[in-house]
Design goal:
Strand order of the largest sheet: 1-2-5-4-3
Largest sheet: 5 strands, mixed
Helix content: 40-55%
Shape: globular
Number of helices: 8
Distance between the termini: 42 Å
Structural class: alpha+beta
Strand content: 15-25%
CATH class of the largest domain: Alpha Beta
CATH topology of the largest domain: Beta Polymerase, domain 2
CATH architecture of the largest domain: 2-Layer Sandwich
Order of helices and strands: HEHEHEEEHEEHHHH
Amino acid sequence: MDFRRVLTALIESFNREGIRYAALGGFAVSALGVQRSTADLDFLAHKDDLAKVGEVMTALGYRKVHVDQNVSHYQAEDRAWGCVDFIHAFRPLSVAMLTRAKPLPVLEGSFVLRVLEPEDLIGFKIQGMANNPLRESFDLSDIHALVRIHASGLDWARVKQYCEAFEMTPLYEDLERKFRCR
């Protein structure tokens, strides 16, 4: 995937259309300071903007390969445009995450991308592990790296809420013991 080309086209279109979005997934983890590779782009998008998202993606040459209540997956024929996934923000918790997202410089500062806060990205990683235990080592690695980098500024109460929501209190206790600055 040509991230520079794809992100430029997407972000310009999202901003022009007033689409409420934030990056999550591997690219967001990288934007928050963790050295990590990724092969696709993942976004959280407000449910009320999904029709506009579909129009933007179609205009850019993507086709929708899957959609359900929670996610939409788009794929381009041209490999340089790759795959782009959207998590639908419609529950109060995910809408709040979207509202808290911050603009960050990406790709050597060539442009600004809205990215979830570290705590909210950790929350998605926790949910990913709860939904698919096979992702545990991968998501746990991202969580540890994010906490290591952002520990002193984390909203630890929010991280604890995510762990409790997915019955992973031992994970919170482990993170707190290893990384929390007292």
